[in-house]
UniProtKB/TrEMBL annotation:
This is Actin related protein 8. It comes from the Eukaryota. CDD domains: ASKHA_NBD_Arp8-like (cd10206). PANTHER family: ACTIN (PTHR11937). It comes from Oryzias sinensis (Chinese medaka). Belongs to the actin family. Residues 476-485 have a biased composition (Low complexity). Keywords: Membrane, Transmembrane, Transmembrane helix. Gene3D superfamilies: 3.30.420.40, Actin, Chain A, domain 4. Residues 1-27 have a biased composition (Basic and acidic residues). InterPro entries: Actin, ATPase_NBD.
Amino acid sequence: MTQAEKELECGGKEKEKERDKEKEQQRGVKRPITPAVIPEATHEQIQTNFVIVINPGSRSVRIGRATDTLPVTVPHVIARRHKQSGQPRYEDPWLIRDGLNVSTSAQSLKYFLDLAELLCVVFLFVVLICVTPNLIYLLYHCVQQKPESNEQRQNGLKMVDQAIWSKKMSNGVRRTPVSAEQARAYNCQIRPAVLDSSSRVKWTNTGHHPPYLVGEEALYVNPSDCYNIHWPIVRGQFNIHSGPGGSMTAVLADLEAIWSHVLQKHLEIPLKDLKYYRCILLVPNIYNKQHVKEVVNMLLLNMGFSAIIVHQESVCATFGSGLSSACVVDVGDQKTSVCCVEDGVSHRNSRLCLAYGGSDVTRTFFWLLQRAGFPYRDCQLSKRLDCQLLQHLKEIFCHLNQDISGLQDHEFQTRFPEAPALLYQIRLGDEKLQAPMGLFYPTTFGIVGQKMTLLQHRYQGDPEDPHDEHYLLSTQSKQDQSSKSAADRRAGARPVGLEGEMSSQCGFGETSELPRSCGGGVGSGGVMQAEMELGPTQGESLMGAGEAEEPLSGHLSRKTAIMSQFESKALGLDKAILHSIDCCASDETKRKMYSSILIVGGGLMFQGAQEFLLHRIINKMPPSFRRLVDNVEVITRPKDMDPRLIMWKGGAVLACLDTTQEMWIHQTEWQRFGVRMLRERAAFVW
């Protein structure tokens, strides 16, 4: 038989086998089912100019190629056109937030009144007759200032003034306080000077009726146009609320529209070509798993990226600054996050998120300006362009330099559409220092009834990820209990000593929160090494000796109660840093963190901020560490970079590392395995 005949015969046998398989399937023959195994990450050469880094924020989003020197930064806002004519306008607030003088019910009332304008005259007359007393009562309580908010703000200002007076200037002389009345007497007499009859600033042209507008174009939409204004992210989380555009679906649609617009218009990448691109997504240190899952789903399946890496902002900040270990402090526009990072690992127990940021400083500065007789008397927090002006005034006037004292004269301009360009003179004193000091005395912000400190809570679980931390925790607890029972039987009536104490400390808690001394944990390397979120002292009180037999549910409920009590506190920035470092497992790690406190984000970009924060950290750090730490260092501009861009730059550096080859999640893998890929491939504990 020739070679050709042999090959023909082999081919015929293979075809017969395939036909037999088809017949078996048609007859319904059951074949053994093998579980789907997640494939190993493939190693391939990646061109970094085809990697897009996305760093979403509450006020701005930064997007760019990994090879770009600087990313594209646009306001993270979208204006959506009304689907029906006559629909009432809705606008997410900028500087106004929950827990302030004007509650969110005032915004709901405005929405109701806009809707009432659409009713016919007769029906409106009947409605007003019925509900006028209730409307008056609601309006009174909406516009009335909350007395506890004002009282808290005044108490915070007293503490700020005391701190200013107690710290001497560089020449050894105490700072002379300046009262607001001194500046007010001058500012109340000021009238604006007309620079030009036209400000040369125009509203966004909506004559062609675009379905949505993004970024600066959205900010300059005329309030009389039929558009709703949405900020999809608030304080680092999805802006989910009961109003228009507040659903999860609407927020994801806004994010997709904004990011797609930036990719097409600024980076000139057609959406159909995204299948050739990969994406690196930066997420907060304290993240919502459901939100991250939905965004990854949007990027891979809706927008069409071929692969994605998800990493934490704090770790990327160390990459961008060139530091191996640091206590990363991200002072953003609406939140401040603190986290200790060591060798590319974010210590879970050290993560804190403070629910205040640069916008709160801006709003407090406006309050202080009003006390000092702010000459631009039509300024309102409900107007977008006024908020933009106040942000600008904060950036150019405020400081943390105690050597600048006394009354000083300044000037500023207002340029609004359909209005002349005006020049204002203003005299200011301590207001420029008092406002940014609110970051260290957050009661000055006057926020009442809100959680001001957020910790990493236990996630409720995802049906797509059956082997999550709940599964690991329950199985580990059963194993610990059975092994302990076996040890007790072997030991007989032996008294409980040091071993019992150790088991009580290591028996319960999340698998990702085991102390270093326990050595246990599930995961790769040392990623799982962490303590309880509440720090060593509070963690020990939760897990004292003799509590190993406590039911798991009872322990978790007590832990949740203590966490809730801790979250109600409004920690200042310096105290939050000290608390985060104190939660590190070893003294050596704490020493590293004190030696490298990295400040990123745009919320603390004030003159003298580095020296001011360093002074407060040194004065408040535990005395025992003052002898151990050779040098406490606060880094505000590593490599002379803009601190607002460091995290994005770290994402770009991440794209160039060889170790990231194992972290890519491909589109086909996500379609098949879903959120399990994040547990397998994420560089942090999912």
